[in-house]
């Protein structure tokens, strides 16, 4: 009973600490939004340069009865499908490079050169080869998002303690069993970090591709509003993209905590 009584104050302290952090971060966002509204209505800038937040929210409400959900759905489809392909391919490629000297010899120079490059520069080539449809947009997402997954997988596998591998082999585990039951679980935190980096990249590239290629999607909607000098539409699309990105990042953080429930970071308070 004494142990339970001692644990309750600790849990309460963690809860109030996390709640205080949530309130603090939320207050910063609220202050920025209020500042946006007040500055836009102060007369320092025209409504065209910076429409008030209230006008932007009104435009989002109007868009909700139009093409908003279609645009959000298409952007999410392109970003998520490209991200999933990059995740699977990147993990597999990272495993191959970590375990095979031939794969390392072939792919290491490509990754070393390609990782720091702005991959979005290949967009005109992708358009020439694949057109302006979903295949080209998803291909660009995969091309950009796969690099952080590959590098994170390589770093994670190489960072696994040798004692774990030796112990598994001494207990009679095969190479396949060592990889899937020892190495990958131990490297999972680092791999998930790479996936968390790749997910917002996937969304960014999907939106940029939509801006360049046109059509439906949040990026295409923003460019259409810009062409017609629709300032409220541009800022409405910007807010919509910010909300979608925030939701995706937080969902990925929740997934990380679920997958790493055995890890020490699961005991740390979640942040907003």
Short description:
By secondary structure, the chain is an all-alpha fold. The chain has helices at about 1-40, 55-65, 70-100, 100-115, 125-130, 135-160, 160-170, 175-215, 220-225, 230-260.
Describe this structure in words.
With 272 residues, this protein is mainly α. The protein folds into two domains: 1-44; 52-267, MetI-like (MetI-like fold, Orthogonal Bundle), CATH 1.10.3720.10. The chain is built from ten helices and no strands. The chain has helices at 2-40, 53-64, 68-99, 101-114, 123-130, 134-158, 162-170, 175-213, 218-227, 231-259. Helix 3 (68-99) packs across helix 9, helix 5 packs across helix 6 and helix 6 (134-158) runs antiparallel to helix 8. The longest helix has 39 residues, at 2-40. It starts with a helix and ends in a 13-residue tail after the last helix.
Quick tags:
2 domains, 10 helices, 272 residues, globular, MetI-like fold, mainly alpha
Give me the secondary-structure topology.
Elements: H1 2-40, H2 53-64, H3 68-99, H4 101-114, H5 123-130, H6 134-158, H7 162-170, H8 175-213, H9 218-227, H10 231-259
């Amino acid at each position: 009973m004494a142990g339970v009584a001692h644990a309750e104050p600790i849990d309460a302290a963690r809860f109030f600490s996390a709640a205080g952090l949530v309130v603090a971060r939320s207050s910063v966002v609220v202050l920025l939004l209020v500042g946006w509204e007040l500055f836009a209505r102060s007369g320092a800038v025209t409504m065209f340069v910076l429409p008030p937040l209230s006008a932007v929210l009104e435009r989002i409400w109007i868009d909700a009865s139009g093409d908003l959900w279609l645009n959000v759905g298409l952007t999410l489809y392109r970003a998520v499908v490209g991200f999933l392909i990059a995740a699977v391919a990147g993990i597999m490629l990272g495993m191959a490079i970590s375990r095979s000297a031939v794969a390392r010899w072939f792919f290491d120079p490509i990754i070393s050169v390609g990782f720091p490059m702005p991959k979005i520069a290949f967009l005109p080539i992708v358009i020439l080869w694949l057109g302006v449809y979903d295949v080209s947009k998803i291909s660009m997402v995969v091309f950009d998002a796969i690099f952080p997954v590959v590098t994170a997988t390589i770093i994670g596998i190489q960072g696994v303690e040798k004692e774990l591998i030796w112990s598994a082999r001494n207990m009679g585990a095969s190479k396949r069993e060592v990889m899937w039951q020892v190495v990958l679980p131990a490297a999972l935190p680092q791999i998930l970090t790479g996936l968390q980096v790749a997910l917002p990249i996937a969304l960014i590239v999907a939106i940029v591709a939509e801006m360049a290629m046109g059509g439906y999607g949040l990026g295409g909607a923003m460019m259409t509003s810009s062409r017609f000098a629709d300032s409220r539409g541009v800022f409405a699309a910007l807010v919509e993209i910010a909300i979608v990105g925030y939701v995706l990042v937080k969902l990925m953080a929740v997934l990380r905590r679920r997958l790493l429930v055995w890890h020490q970071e699961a005991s740390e308070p979640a942040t907003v």
